[in-house]
Amino acid sequence: MERGKMAEAESLETAAEHERILREIESTDTACIGPTLRSVYDGEEHGRFMEKLETRIRNHDREIEKMCNFHYQGFVDSITELLKVRGEAQKLKNQVTDTNRKLQHEGKELVIAMEELKQCRLQQRNISATVDKLMLCLPVLEMYSKLRDQMKTKRHYPALKTLEHLEHTYLPQVSHYRFCKVMVDNIPKLREEIKDVSMSDLKDFLESIRKHSDKIGETAMKQAQQQRNLDNIILQQPRIGSKRKPKKDAYTIFDTEIGSTSPKSEQDSGILDVEDEEDDEEVPGAQDLVDFSPVYRCLHIYSVLGARETFENYYRKQRRKQARLVLQPPSNMHETLDGYRKYFNQIVGFFVVEDHILHTTQGLVNRAYIDELWEMALSKTIAALRTHSSYCSDPNLVLDLKNLIVLFADTLQVYGFPVNQLFDMLLEIRDQYSETLLKKWSGIFRNILDSDNYSPIPVTSEEIYKKVVGQFPFQDTELEKQPFPKKFPFSEFVPKVYNQIKEFIYACLKFSEDLHLSSTEVDDMIRKSTNLLLTRTLSSSLQNVIKRKNIGLTELVQIIINTTHLEKSCKYLEEFITNITNVLPETVHTTKLYGTTTFKDARHAAEEEIYTNLNQKIDQFLQLADYDWMTGDLGNKASDYLVDLIAFLRNTFAVFTHLPGKVAQTACMSACKHLATSLMQLLLEAEVRQLTLGALQQFNLDVRECEQFARSGPVPGFQEDTLQLAFIDLRQLLDLFLQWDWSTYLADYGQPTCKYLRVNPVTALTLLEKISREMKDTSRKNNMFAQFRKNERDKQKLIDTVAKQLRGLISQHS
Length: 814
Known about the structure:
Layout: H1 2-27, H2 34-42, H3 46-152, H4 156-170, H5 178-236, H6 263-267, E1 270-271, E2 290-291, H7 293-304, H8 308-326, H9 337-360, H10 367-389, H11 395-414, H12 420-451, E3 458-459, H13 462-471, H14 477-481, E4 486-487, H15 493-512, H16 519-546, H17 553-568, H18 570-581, H19 595-622, H20 640-655, H21 661-683, H22 693-711, H23 728-738, H24 742-748, H25 761-776, H26 792-812
Antiparallel strand pairs: 1-2, 3-4
Helix pairs in contact: 1-3, 3-4, 4-5, 5-7, 5-9, 5-11, 7-8, 9-10, 9-11, 10-12, 11-12, 12-15, 12-16, 15-16, 16-19, 17-19, 19-20, 19-21, 20-22, 21-22, 22-23, 25-26
Keywords: Coiled coil, Exocytosis, Transport
Protein name: Exocyst complex component
Organism: Delphinapterus leucas
């Protein structure tokens, strides 16, 4: 029972499932029916499902048949009406066809006309569209043509502007045309072409200013010179209502415009032609000589193209290279002033251009760049000047170089460059200038001293007298009162040397001009240089003259007189320097002139040379002495050579009248002492081993002649018997031997009141031994002791005793 209920329940569920599947089949699209059917075949009741499906189909067929039976009569009626309409439709068709044929025939011409109208309208529309397109293209083509013309005429900056308008304004409106694409493709090439051409112009400009920088610098320095001359004139003599044209501003703005359409302004670069002008005409501004438009154009072109930094770097790099070339001096620059001038002109020209670029462009060069270049230029210029100026031996060239350096510095200072180091270097060159002056004046002094006749200047008229006094500060009331002709005490080299010292001072003063030094500094420089001239150059020249081998006593005497007067003139040189520098000698730190010392040293050297010269002359006379040391004859007069010597001394000392008394006295005393010493050496000469008392007597006569000369007072100013003291050693020695007063000598030796105080035991022993040797020589017949021959042993014993006592004295006082 339960099994039957369960089977019935399952059957109901299966029937319900089959019903659901059938509804899905009826309502589902045919393409999606597969899963539904698959579920049927997956189950076990597909047979029953097929039965239900057949049943459902038969039901639908019965419904369709009912539907058709219900509408059949209406369908038949409709068919009947359609058959009636077909005939009428055929008639209408025939009528329409006939009407259409007639219409086609009648409207054939109209159709042709309409086709023609259509073509005309189409052409009109095309023409209008073409005109519109051409109106858009014509400005592009015109701009492109203008661009080509500007490129052809090398107006590159306007061409770049045109290219910019063409690219950003016109081409976008017609960008779909092929020719526009060609233009767009050419635009980068055109820009590069403009860059290359403008860079080529810049290179030409740089090469041009490199070649002509000396002309630019020459003009700038000429301007500075004219301005300085004008300033000097204004300072010296102010002029009211001067009609001189105002000087052009250093930064003249040129007429060249960046966008100028003038072919000349576009093409010209570098130096403009300027005719030579007369000195009294205004010199054109240095920048007026240069057309800077290539730089401006290139700068603007690169700025527009966005490559300004590239341009700036290139410009600065090239100018640095040019600066190094400009700062390289030629190897022979030191030979002429033109070499220095060209070197300075190039440097000035270079920095004038850079300064103008600095002030007329925005950032192409800056102050740091200019300062860096100037520091390099300053160091290299100073090094070159130090090297080349050291080769200059001509003071005039050094002075001209100094003036050129000052002008060079003043010119650059106008443009704002610091030039203090140049003026510091000029102080170094000043020392070199002083050295060259000293060398030059050394030759001048040498020529003056060599050409001088060393004789007092004769004066035959008042005119000549005033001329000499005008050249040299000399005042002598007694000489002024003397009638003409008369003589100055000094020779010609005194006024010549004095005037050359003044010329030297003037030469030193010339170098100090325009160095911006104070009066004190100028005064100190002049005084130091003058001291070098006096203490080194003039002193050396005087010493060389004094030490010459062939110089005579007359010349030496005149040199002493001359240096005495030059020494007195030193105060006038001090006043001369004070007058030209306006610095009082009482000012603190003022250097004093050493002229007094110089002339004193020269005078002392001349005095020493006089003493030496006199002694040499005395030696020459003594070489003529020919004593017969073995003679037994007693002479009655002095030797001839000594008489001549005394005569020479008298004449010589007569020339000493103009010398200071002390000099003449010293010379006379020195000569007498030297003569006495030489005679003593002659007497004690080792070669003379024997001598007789007769020879000693002759020698005594010569000494008496010398004493007579000393007593005669050859030079005034000696006290009584002072000059004779030069011969006191000889006199006491001769008296000792001629008087044979050995007992007195031996008894009083060593006492202040000894009669033979100046006789040295060694000298006495030497002379005694010579006499002793002669006495022992028995071969001599004319022996002075022959009358005592019978007592010869006693006499020889006496000599031996004296000699022994002398040796005792020597040993006691040794």
